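User: Can you write out an input/output pair for a complex, sequences first and structure second?

Assistant: Here is one pair. Inputs:
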Amino acid sequence: MEEPRIGVYICWCGSNIAKMVDVQDVAKFIAKLPGVIIARDYKYMCSDPGQDMVVKDIKEFKLNRVVVSACSPRIHELTFRKALENAGLNPYMFEMANIREQDSWVHENRAEATHKAKSLVAAAVYRVKHHEALDKRTVDINPATLIIGGGIAGMSAALEIADAGKKVFLIEKSSELGGNLTRVDLTFPYLYSAEYILNPIITQVKKHPNISLFMNTTIEEVYGYVGNFETTLKNQNGKDLQLKFGNVIVATGLKPFDPAVIPEYNYGKLPDVVTSHEFERLVSNGQIVTKAGNIPKNIAIIHCVGSRNPKYHPYCSRTCCLTALKYSNQIRSALPDANIFQLYADMRTMGKGCEELYTRTSRQGVIFLMFDQKHDLPRVRKADINESCNMIIELNELLSGETIEIPADLVILMVNMEAHDDSAQVAHAVGVSKCGNDFYIEKHPKLDPVATTTDGVYIAGTCQSPKHIPDSIAQAKAAAARILATIKVASVNVEVTTAFVNEDICCGCQTCIKVCPYSAISYLVDKKVSFVNDILCKGCGTCGSACPTGAIRSRHFTDQQILSEIEGILQFEIQEAVL
Amino acid sequence: MTMRINPDLPKELKKYGKGEWNECFHCGTCTALCPLTENNNLFPRRSIRLLQMGLNDSLTVNVDPWLCYYCGDCSKSCPRDANPGELMMSLRRYLTSIYDWTGLSKRFYTTHFWEFGMILFLALFVISLFVFVLPPLDPTLNAAGGVRINQFAPVDLIEIGDWIMAIIVASLLISNILHMYYMVILKDKSIKIPLWLYFKEFWLLIFHFVTQLRFSKCDTEGKKYWLSHWLLMSGYTVMFTVIVVFLPWFQTEEVHPLYHPQRLLGYYATFGLLFGLIVVMIGRIRKSGEKFKFSHFSDWFFIIMLILTTVSGIMVHIFRINGMPYATYYTYIAHLAILVPMIMIEVPFSKWSHLAYRPFAIYFANLKKAAAA
């Protein structure tokens, strides 16, 4: 190993660090540590002059390692790695000591904070001595994309990619395209026909030369890694078909909840209690009638069926309130004299044009009644023979505190949207994880709601969570754009700080395979050792800490590096004690 | 107790006033702002809810609308523009029609035909009394040059008419108040009011009738309207008492000097009526203040009838003290032809009835509160 020549830079971060840490004292102290050639303090290390200083020093003092002691590496590690690269150094010959979040911001005693800063910087100096140069790695991208699900999200993404001239394999498990939207008559909030939205898209998808459609097809297993996936489909003739693709979009959607499990609503027992999906069919058939064929005088719409109740599903399905308001409008125009009751738990009408729909609806003489969704559902029962209505709904109305009865001839249950029964199978096949509500989990809930933790696999539409049509399409097109970007670059950087196996020490116990969250480790039967797929590995280090023999190690997090870091802190403590 | 809702009630109430009450989503801003609402009586929000849900029985057992004096703060601050203040006003009209057991009030409030028809009928009735019952106009009445009012309209005969009218109006109003008592107190099974409480709380009934002090608590403008309203009310009460109970003392042949109590009382009552009416008229024309923004047909009807009564009364007085006999006699007939229908319609059936319902509502609300405590 070459002689370490370390440059150390203590950042003031304006007054963020400097007011609680004596940065000059720290720099003076660090300068004395073995291997440190130069130690400076500067007002803003992340500024251009700050970075230039690092580059200049590397060249002038022939530094081969750099420590910057500033904020969290989450914020600026990449900045300084880039600076090292500019100076001709390998970017991994760098270590960052966090003396802001972990020191100046959380302490009130300047002497102690300065003392702690010295510890942290010393630890980084000790560690960086053992850093090794790591090389960037890239993999090539297959320009074809697999899209699972032929609903509005899947089709929108497919068209976006196909129009850019790239190949798309679109897989749909049913016999028709369009998904849940095929069962919708008008869309909220502008009461625009769903058919008008859907039909042109279906036609385009069907005739697009870059889209290969696979109807009545499900996915068994997807192998490979970002840029280089493959799967085998069985077509109708039972023949296997091999597909190769670089990226995957999962757009499998959701399905309606079955309200028969809720005893209060008597769905399935009373003929005129229907789900929202069944009511859509009534409306698109052009007549709102009861089972017996009569025009209903009193129509009750019950919200949150299967939603926001720990017994069924804890989450909100987002679309039902607005769908219910849409129904009010449709009923009001078809049956101007009907009494319309909205039995709701909370009216949730966020979104463009949606609050306006609520206001408009509330002017149409619709009666809004609030109930306790968690503890006290309305009860639907058959009316007595001498009543003028079919059914009676009894509820404890929250806003008035009164127990009331409502006449009803037709009851519409606004059913929740829930994950498909085979959602786990799809998740397993493509390597995405599911949350407690069986929705697929995005990479980051705020910063990256489109990608997943598996590189090259994206999610779009309601399989991620219930959402409106424009949100589904936005997400689908975002996924398509992301994929097109990687196809354009033709290659993608993969993680370099991965794990590797020392085959001489590996005893073949396969503990690492069980703990790996990315399925990146496999067992080589012939050699009887574990093998890490560098492209799937994210360098989380779980295998390394679980390995009983120390055979698996993580690059950039070797035992030696970590032990030196600890030694750095302790060395400093010993010196302080002696003095 | 489970109650059946009445989906037609919100539509029905639209006939009694104007507002997008269904738009209320119960944020409670109105109730939080209201200077008069109390913890056990959360209006106007509760009333809005009962209306939206069509719970007639709960609405009629509830005197909340009468406890409101319509400062309009609630409507000004309503985020949904649901106009809770006008709802309380509309509910007062609605409750007036509900308390009235004859069903005439409802007709007067909801159809112009009945209201105008009844005015015309009563006016013609009064005129025909003068034509057919009273002694014919004797040309000699004018000969002496003076106004012989008691020869033209003998005070003892007019007084008999007064008493007949007073008895009819009083019995209608009292029976309506008893009906209100039945709906508000007797039908409310949740509460038992011991007899002694009726006596204990009774002084408040008188107190509120005379002072209307709750009105002045309403808002910053409350004091201004309280004064004009009080002047109007006291002027009206004085005039009503004088012409019904003390007519022989009031309608005299002799023109008393200016400082005579007869003239002073008459002038005070006229001033009170005019002042109050002008404030209300300007308010309603300019739509200044929430309470004047919407004027129901019955509001204008009441104002116009009362102003005509007042003006015709003033004219009778001017003609009489200036010795103009025929002018006096004809305006006297006109005065009565306006006054009689106004009192017969307004006091038991329409807006004027609040002079009884409001103090009684406060009385009943206090009874309930005291009984619950």
